[in-house]
Amino acid sequence: MNLPSRKPNRLPCFDYSRPSAYFITICTNNRRLILWDHVGASIARPEEMQLSHIGTVVEEAILKIPQKYPAISVDTYVVMPNHIHLLLQINTDEDGRAMLAPTISSVVQQMKGYVTKKVQESIWQKSFYDHVVRGEQDYLSIWEYIQGNPYKWEEDMLYGEGE
């Protein structure tokens, strides 16, 4: 049986454990709206947004990344109703040398596994989107996008009427 193959979504020959900034988006399975409480058109201001129990576990997992991987910092993030955005940085030491770090795929896999274990169900889609940040302007644009995402929820391309 010939099954369709997935289009590779990683840069070929790129070392995803090298010092750089990475923009990551991870969606819930079937884009289920399970990370916020009271999701819908009535959400006009993000100040009214509250994370659901699962959303709280996801945030906890995000905040534990630098504890588990000291070479990695979470520069900014947002938990949306059916996806998360992360701006991760693999850092260098004080002398500018690369620190021992896992690949970004390993970090995402561990974070997803932590959430799955804590909530006792798999909530994530199979893969994730990543973008290697290229320069200061790219970094600033991504930072602003992540910070502004809750205010533009209904315009977001991942907005949906999930379960």
How do the strands and helices of this protein lay out in sequence?
Layout: E1 20-27, E2 36-37, E3 50-51, H1 53-68, E4 72-79, E5 83-90, H2 104-119, E6 129-132, H3 136-148
Antiparallel strand pairs: 1-5, 1-6, 2-3, 4-5
Helix pairs in contact: 1-2
Report the average pLDDT across residues.
84
Q: Strand fraction band?
A: 15-25%
Q: State the end-to-end CA separation.
A: 32 Å
Number of domains: 1
Kindly describe this structure.
This protein has three helices and six strands. The chain is α+β, with helices and mostly antiparallel strands. The longest helix is centred in the middle third of the chain and has 16 residues, at 53-68. The strands form two sheets. Strands 4-5-1-6 form a four-stranded antiparallel sheet, with helices on both faces. It has a two-stranded antiparallel ribbon with strand order 2-3. A hairpin with a 3-residue loop joins strand 4 and strand 5. It is globular. Helix 1 crosses helix 2. The model has no long low-confidence stretch (mean pLDDT 84). It has one domain (20-155): Transposase IS200-like (Alpha-Beta Plaits), CATH 3.30.70.1290.
